[in-house]
Design goal:
Length: 168
């Protein structure tokens, strides 16, 4: 039996207490792809990546230009930054700042584990986790997508590999 929950909302905060989201989408049939990075107002970042894929000759757009394209071509909903705010994510940012660390969004929910990834040890850390994505197969057709807010206390403007075509 499949149990469905109400869709969640929220995102991790950058070091300057803002939200920046990213997403990518790939179509295995025609090898089309789209990515949208550094989004601040897109309610559904994956839909912005789809707009890039279906409405431009480019594979990636960044920031306001990507969001403007999504509104123009698909009438996608934009929201204010407050939409993404949750107390839990705010508390995670405060905890991350206390330890001068950048952390995966799920690490702070598991206090029994070593949660902080020191900035100078980040690259060498073997316990990094990736963003969960989606792969769909239907009658021989394959598509894949991923969407992320990145890491708590990340530098504004930081883009992870999850939404970069061919990297995540």
């Amino acid at each position: 039996m499949l149990l469905l929950r109400q869709p969640g909302k929220g995102a991790v905060l950058t070091a300057d207490s803002t939200f920046e989201l990213e997403a990518s989408l790939m179509n295995g049939d025609n090898l089309a792809c789209g990515a949208a990075l550094s989004l601040k107002r897109a309610k559904n970042p994956i839909s912005v990546a789809r707009a890039v894929m279906e409405n431009t000759e480019h594979f990636c757009l960044v920031g306001e230009e990507a969001e403007e394209l999504a509104v123009r071509s698909r009438n996608l909903e934009m929201v204010e930054q407050e939409y993404f705010y949750t107390k839990r994510r705010h508390d995670q940012l405060l905890q991350s700042k206390e330890t001068d660390s950048i952390v995966n969004d799920h690490d702070l929910e598991q206090p029994q584990k070593e949660i902080a990834i020191a900035k100078n040890d980040f690259i060498q850390n073997e316990n990094k986790f990736g963003t969960v994505g989606c792969v769909c197969w239907y009658k021989g057709h394959v598509a894949a997508a991923t969407s992320t807010g990145g890491m708590t206390n990340k530098m504004p403007g930081r883009v992870g590999d999850s939404a970069l075509i061919g990297c995540g």
